[in-house]
## 1
Amino acid sequence: MANDMRIGGLASGMDIDKIVGDLMKAERMPLDKMEREKTTLTWKRDAYREVNKQLFELENMAFDMKLEKSYNSKTTSSSDSGAVTATANAESSVGNYNMKVDQLASSAINTSRETISGGTNEIDPSGLLKDQNFKNGLPTNKDFTIKTYNEDGSTNEKTFTVDPNTQSLNDVLKNISNSDLGVRAFYDSQADKLVLERTETGNFNKTNEFKGAEIGFDSGSAPFLTQTLGVWNSKQDPDTGNWVKAEQGGTNAKFTYNNALDLETSGNSYTLNGVTFNFNDTTDGKNASINVNNNVDSAVDKITQFVDKYNKVIEDVGGRISEQKNRDYQPLTDKQKEGMEEKEIELWEKQAKKGLLHSDSTLQGAMFEMRNEWYQSVDTSGQFSQLSEIGIKTSSSYRDNGKLIIDEDKLRQALTEDSASVSKLFVGEGETEGIADKLKTTLNETIKQVERKAGKPSSVPSSYNLGESITQIDDEMDAFEDRLNQIEDRYWSEFTQMEKAIQKMNSQSNYMMQQFG
């Protein structure tokens, strides 16, 4: 604890403040050294994390390069894109596909036979049912049940309760739409009719129940639907007099593949051999020709981006490893920064941060392994076993530290002629690892080693080596600060006692002079 009474040279005439300050500067030298050491460790930790961020990004790209779709993506074109378009996955075969579409899939829809409002005013679908003037009134039994069908043959059925005193027509229709029946229900005020339609296309009712309707209900027990809202399952054919399905739509798409295979599907798309055909219209009895080709541009872009990222990592990490430390520039202490401009501090620290990762063994080993993995042969059933065969080789300049150079024309030719073999070179085959596999393994292990040294932004200091060192220095600095306070108190105590002694001697001297005066 500091002395409350500090006498600053009144008796001796000495500048005690300056003397103690100069003495404390010498005492603080070990603390300044610790502060600089802590700064260096912090910078080193951050440098490692910056490297790891780049390695992690490269690792993610290496993972993408392990996916066959990176090399085998396809493009498609159609002779009649208004009727048929297509998309193809990486496994699809290159070639020409013919498709003749005779019928599109459609959603089943049923509407009121006639307008449902009575008198001259239309009903208000938001008003209570009891207050509306329906042409055919409200029946005594207002509850009804609707049944729908699924593609797998299962059915959905739900009964709806109608209360005219508390519900509006919109309330009832909302309950239908929100159910799991797969039916959309609404009232169109312009037509003054109700609309019921399936939310998905297809013919799922393979029975004669409800005349084959997709949205089925028992007309005799659903007078609210039939009488009040005018929706029926069947209608009488004016030509034959027979009762037929009133509902429209609810059809499957019908098409012929390559003039040989007649197919039917509930939706307007169908996948064959990795190619998904999308039907937009019928083809008027003709074939739409779909051409599938390798998407060489996409593969070239992905490989180029991966190589560019690798080269960037090589340049940055290699530069950090080879960079020499500038021993003329030590980290600045907080007190040193007080007398400097911000730009001066920035320029100084730029020099002081040089060589933080000089000759780091972990990073040196990773760079060596990665360079070696690019050179290695990959023995698969494909025609390519080395990168040089597809136009990727190492720079001949030693200054480039093993950067890769791409001959795009050669790479493009290899992908055009045999994209599968290019894929095997990166992805591997069976038990044989490809280049991307090997690189990912090396990167993953390096990232782990660096994290053991420098952790991640979310890591606690005790979980990595540099964090423990920084914490230890913090503790030492705190202890040393306490010691400095004690030393400063001791200096002031000693000088204060000296001042008191001189003051006492001066008083005695003055007294004696007065006595002999």
## 2
Amino acid sequence: MRVVFPFTAIVDQERMKRALVLCAIYPQIGGVLIRGERGTAKSTAARALAALLPEIDVVADCPFSCDPHQPATWCTLCRERVERGETLPVARRKTRFVDLPVSATEDRVVGTLDIERAIQKGERRFEPGVLAMANRGLLYVDEVNLLDDHIVDVLLDAAAMGVNVVEREGISFQHPARFILVGTMNPEEGDLRPQLLDRFALCVNVEGVRDPAQRAEILRRNLAFEQDPEGFRAEWEPYERQLSEEIAAARERLPHVVHTPRDLLLIAGLVSSLGVDGHRADLVILKTARAYAAFKGRDQITEEDILLAAELALPHRLKRRPFDEDGHLTLEQLAERMEQVRRQVEGNAPSQPASSPEGGTPKKAQRTDGELRDRSRPVGEESAPLQRQTVTRQEGVWWEGGKPVPIGETFRVKRLDTPKDRRERRVGGRRSVTRSARKRGRYIWARPSPGQADDLAFDATLRAAAPHQIERDRSRTALAIHPEDYHRKVRVRRAANLILFVVDASWSMAVAERMEATKGAILSLLTDAYQRRDRVGLIVFQKDRARLVLPPTSSVDLAKKALEDIPVGGKTPLSAGLLLAYEVLCREMLLRPEVRPLMILLTDGAGNVSMSELPPQEEAHRIADLFRERGIPCVVINMEHAAFDQGLAQALADHLGAPCYTLHELKAESLYSTVRSALG
């Protein structure tokens, strides 16, 4: 059996550990999303939490791990067994840790019905999925941002409702799905849509430990664990057992934790004052505050509980535009806002305040993560103070002659579409229509699929079986369907594009007015790509070379940072920029054939640097021909002033086989013309 690194041995990361413990106490909070850079113990913490959780009683042979002491939560199978007079066998086991792979399909997650058995014998037979296995356990989803949106939605629905409902062709089945949902992600790989991000109850942003002493302690503990995993875990077992017992005690105390009407007003006022949409945040703060009060041994929530809960429930719900910096609220900022809300509540709706165990209502909440931090160090070891970091916002600038060039006006770009293609693709998006290889998308027709009941098209299958009913044996069924009658659904959906921005940053583009407009166009197009879940990359060419400033990624934060401090000036190596773009797109097409490429070139077309003996314009045109021959869709945005336009950008677009737009046309209300390519 694999030995797991102890939860209490994780150095620092107190906010992350607090969020995980609270979700373990009260899974109905709705799960926690942990966002952070690589190597910050995200996966380690999730696995370690499951290892220290208390053992649970389960129905021994139930596929859903039903609680034998809670009949109201039993699955359909356990209910039917009891109704038949059976006695449910009871077993005791550790809490399960269920890992959901990124490649999981919807049927693998929610389970499926045996369609063939349902048709031929009229029996309802359910094949459990990941949600069934995770019931009353911990469901861990690494790289949750890379999952299909629909899969994430199903997970969050089950986590919030505590039940999984599977419906297929008019037949339904449901079972309990109460689990601790932990999702982790690296923001550099792209973010979740705001609608899905809001569905995660709690969110924690983690960073690598900066303090040298703590980093050295991380090294020491990891080396000790690698050399002797069992011995290291035995050393930390007292701390693990103590925390496990406290979680179990908090679970028992949780139903008895109460709140006052004043507490509800404080929560509602705090959330409302921050302009958070909807009411989910209010409910999450209340649930989290109750869990924290239970963990601290109290039977009534305090303002401290509310503030600590708000610190986990609000930052990812604050309104921000796609390229704004992540919101971050410190406890001090929340306490100041709470002070304002308290004065309003006490002035307009006097009520008896909820007192803390020490008496009185604290004006400033003090971070009390020390209890968890103390457990993460051997007895006698000093606790290092938290290093607070102030997040400052900086605007991206392009430099011209030592002076910053401001961002030009952004606008809502015309819709950029690409034609439907016939390849089956597994990566979803919102721009290009393509055939789907998964059970997602619009059902448009059916095709024969003998012997394969996967994603069965009932209408086509019934039509195929109908002519043979006279000759087939129907003594045991009303309709005789054989495997050779099966037809599979063919679906279409929108697939994601890889959009590579290629930007001319030479002197010919360095006039401040044009550069402002260029930057505004790029930010507008990047926003459009963000909204449609496209992967984006950025190439800049100037002087004598081209640079891949941003390798293809779905992270809009990285895209924004890549636009900061880009130098402007020098000659125009247009050929180098096109060649690098061609190489990047060909490599991406080889590595990720499921994603459709698109190059957006922002230039005036005035190339004046060659990589060979050919004239600059001829060389650029020859490289542009490669895009058309390879069938890579392109769009040219002519940044030349209309009064001085020499037609260079249009000539380049002709060789690329691409439409050419001006900024004025880009802002028009009408839709983009469809990008013509040989992919259809």
## 3
Amino acid sequence: MITSVLVANRGEIARRVFRTCRELGVRTVAVYSDADASAPHVHEADAAVRLPGAAPADTYLRGEALVRAARAAGADAVHPGYGFLSENAGFARAVLDAGLVWIGPPPEAIAAMGSKTEAKSLMAAAGVPVLGPVDPASATEADLPLLVKAAAGGGGRGMRVVRRLDDLPGELAAAEAEAVSAFGDAEVFLEPYLETARHVEVQILADAHGTVWALGERDCSLQRRHQKVVEESPAPGLPEAVRTRLHDAAVAAARAIGYTGAGTAEFLVADDGRFHFLEMNTRLQVEHPVTECVTGLDLVRLQLLAAEGGRLPEAPPAPRGWAIEARLYAEDPAREWQPQTGTLHCLDVPGVTARFQPGTADSGVRLDAGVEDGSTVGVHYDPMLAKVIAWAPSREAAARRLADALARSRVHGLTTNRDLLVRVLRHPRFLAGLVDTAFLTRHHADVTANGSVDKETESLSALAAALADAAANRAAAPVLSGLPGGWRNVASQPQTKRYTALATGTEHEVAYRLTREGLRCDAHPGVRLLEAAPGRVVLEDCGVRRAFDVARYGALTHVDSPLGAIALTARPRFPDPVVRTAPGSLLAPMPGTVVRLGAAPGDTVEAGAPLVWLEAMKMEHRVTAPAHGVLAELRVSEGQQVDVGTVLAVVTPGAAPGHAAPGAATPTHVTPTHVTPDHVTPTHEESP
């Protein structure tokens, strides 16, 4: 019997496993990097062991250190979570060799599925449909588009979409380099790229006594960079015959490799119902909560049962209703999904009825978060903050419930994809079930956060922020604190305050007076002030009353109202002098690590040529030359850590052959950083 479990992971999956362990009376052990020393999962465990360092390679990817931690803390079992070493057969063997229980499939099953090329051969032999590989040497225009994939890959690393044959050699080389960096294995392969297929996966659970369950399927087609964003169960609009064949194929795949524990068989489903095996994830999936919500099962509990040698019932429970999960990321969808770092001041999702566990009622909202108020989001790990899951008797009801919960959430301190998720969940084609892997590309303009920001909402929110700020100043005043903020007995100049809206960059100057007759604001002549407090302002606009909740964090102000969530930066009354940057300077758009350099000082570079590759939050970002010219300075080296705004390089514009030389840059000109994420095209996720 398992008595103490070390979770060889971090964030929300560690907290998820701890939740089940507490309910079962099993002690818990956390591991943590220096960057995670104050993370919630560390404080929730019964014991915690430090892994010195911050980068994954120095901490969560060191199998020998994790085994030592388990033995030092007295754990008798290891749960790998997802990502990191969860699908590493060598780590599973090391755990077993140390006399510990491995909460996962046998190392042999992990190894069988560890190489995508070998896995496809096994599945083809078992009668499971697979996509045939393409030989790079004989690829033709008729084969395009193609997908380069790392054989040992995951999480979108080592993957590229190739749309032109001329690009194939470069994309193969780039994928190989990234695969070596991420997995220590340079093997890559080519397969046809199905642009508008659906990504459907089947949850598998098996014991050591021959019982294999297919616990329904999940549609994970809604992806960005082919990494999952929204998942749901069951898959909408799937013919029952196709559903049955998918379940049968997943069971056949599990039996073919002697699988035990929880796992997922992933498929691409074409418009005509034909499907092809992608891979088997030999672990728990990020999106497992949607299966739990429609079945009522605790999959982590069943993982422990299988690891202890227990038996599953002959058949699983039938799924009920619908569940949809949205992944809340610290990223900016309108700026090429650029990941964000900093302090998460507030994460408050209203109406949550369950945390890290299946709900007990027919409908509700579940929150699985790896962060809490005050958590720091750094550069070393995936930018996912939380998973918000809604379940209800119907798909429409689940989508409506989830969209409402996200829209009413307070998420302060970081730019996130929250607004995009709300727009997706309310999009007519999503509600009609017309989703495939190209959905976000096709509808990017409709759902990006900056695409439809209402300037009137920004302006009203800025007014509310100014009134709340004045109320806070008045409440803190040593005398006459009961007077309204900004009140004057004799008419004078209006109170003014300036804000910049973070989403759009629009500057709003708020000018108002508080008189005996009430609020006077020329920009909003129809607005009446009904209530003003430091954290809440109530305005009546043309007869419609609305409350604005205001939270301040230094110069950052968040205003949440029924009109939407607006983040503002208060501008100083007397701005500091602007620091001048050399013309042609390329600035780091985020903190990260320099992993590659594309040129040397003195080289002539073409516009768009990649000069520096930055790695941040498990993704690579290319900083490219803004124009033809000469690389005058290269101020960074491989392996160097840089902060946001660091000058990486300086390009001096020059005349391309046959072109006139451009005009010289002015001394205050700062060349904007051109950041284009590499074409990462994973067909599955996963990262902690």
